[in-house]
Write a structure and sequence with these properties.
The protein is α/β, with parallel strands linked by helices and 405 residues long. Helices cover 51% and strands 14% of the residues. The strands form 4 sheets. The protein has a 5-stranded parallel sheet, sandwiched between helices. A 3-stranded antiparallel sheet has the order 10-12-11. It has a two-stranded antiparallel sheet with strand order 3-4. Helix 11 crosses helix 12. The longest helix is centred in the C-terminal third of the chain and has 24 residues. It is globular and about 70 Å long. The two termini are 32 Å apart.
């Protein structure tokens, strides 16, 4: 099949999953749905969606945004804080998210933009233009009056029967290191909860933060009371059945089916990590020659995805950091071991030269620091994902057969 005639890939490497392709996460969804029902009844809630990089936090938040708009009439602002370092940055990105939001009821967006008219420029071919100069000038003031700003948004959408707001603060890794951020969040939650003491009702707000667990702990270290305000919703790797459902649903969207052996390969070598599932799925889409994905095509896709993520990540951040000849030698021999996620230090040591053996302990510590492996029990280590493991195998001896182990 000519690649130019294949149409649109149903996979989204590096992007949140479209709502129609979202599968699984029932327990996490139910936890946040419960919080959403409380907000719709007038009681503010705060949730921290915690999980490792590439686990699907943003996709889950994106899905909940759409779901709670429909089920509970909550107006969602999904604020992507990548690059934000200050509270003024956070405020500016919140305004941008509000202007560019996509609610179920389009008339409500018009009401929100009326509140933010000072920052809305001319309509352009690809959407509305934001007056960034004005927004940057006012962003510090907005951050200081953040709760009143959110109240303005809420008051406007009441006219369109929205009961409350969802505020999703996503990609918080940069700003979470700012000591002011933790206190800002705690003050926002507390000030809202205490609104009834000063004669007004609390804003019905579902506050959702998305980040790795380390960022939540860093916030607590900065300002310990933050620990008490969040219901923590942990996002773990997807189960094999959830992964299988995802691949089947994605390929069905474009009229393709998947052989059982191919499905088993896709599920096994992506380990329930959505980031890897989209990388491998996209590679499989382009590899497939017909309307049914075969096992050999799935294997080729796994190898292609491993090569892609290896060249983009491992070559620069891992292999580039292992400068010594002995470290490179250890890595190559690790790659030639039986293909498995886990390995024993003693088994690797038997393959090394005496000089390499003396440096093995430091090598393993370095690999842990680089987030390639983790210790599972004394003398045993596990790779954090299959694609990294496969790429190291490929660097050691390029394969000409299906991954096995």
């Amino acid at each position: 099949m000519n690649p130019a005639n294949k149409g649109r890939s149903p996979f989204y490497p590096g992007q949140p999953v479209p709502v129609q392709l979202f599968v699984g996460r029932e327990a996490q969804i139910d936890r946040v749905r419960r919080a959403g029902s409380q907000v719709a009844a007038g009681k503010p809630q705060a949730v921290f969606i915690a999980g490792e990089y590439g686990i699907g936090k943003s996709s889950l938040a994106h899905y909940l945004h759409a779901l709670l708009d429909i089920e509970q009439s909550l107006y969602g602002l999904h604020v992507l804080l990548g690059g934000a370092k200050t509270l003024a940055d956070l405020a500016a990105k919140t305004v941008e998210a509000a202007i560019l939001s996509k609610p179920r009821k389009q008339s409500a967006l018009g009401l929100v933009r009326n509140v933010l008219a000072d920052y809305v420029g001319e309509q352009e071919l690809l959407g509305v233009k934001i007056r960034l100069d004005k927004l940057r000038a006012d962003s510090a003031d907005i951050s200081r009056g953040y709760l009143p700003f959110l109240r303005q948004i809420h008051q406007s959408i009441l006219k369109d029967s929205y009961k409350g707001l969802i505020l999703i603060l996503d990609e918080i890794n940069g700003i979470a290191s700012n000591p002011d951020f933790s206190q800002f969040i705690k003050t926002l939650v507390d000030s809202n909860a205490l609104s009834s003491d000063v004669g007004s009702e609390p804003l019905p707000l579902l506050l959702i933060l998305c980040g790795v667990e380390a960022r939540r702990k860093a916030m607590i270290q900065t300002h310990q009371p933050v620990e008490r305000i969040f219901d923590v919703v942990a996002v773990d790797p997807m189960s094999p059945s959830e992964s299988a459902s995802f691949f089947e649903k994605a390929f069905k969207e474009i009229g393709m089916s998947v052989e059982p052996g191919a499905l088993s390969t896709l599920v096994r070598f992506t380990g329930g990590l959505p980031k890897l599932m989209h990388l491998v799925g996209d590679a499989a889409f382009w590899t497939a020659k017909g309307e049914r994905l075969t096992e050999s095509e799935a294997t080729t896709a796994v190898l292609d995805a491993a090569d892609d993520i290896g060249r983009r990540y491992l070559d620069q951040q891992v292999i580039g950091a292992l400068q010594s000849t002995d470290y490179r030698g250890i890595l190559k021999k690790l790659g030639k071991m039986t293909l498995s996620l886990s390995f024993k230090k003693n088994d690797l040591d038997k393959l090394l030269t005496p000089t390499e053996s003396k440096k093995l302990g430091n090598f393993l510590r370095r690999m842990k620091d680089l987030n390639v492996i983790r210790g599972t029990q004394y003398g045993e280590y596990t790779f954090n994902d299959w694609l990294t493991r496969i790429y190291i195998m490929m660097k050691a001896s390029p394969p000409n057969h299906a991954p096995s182990g």
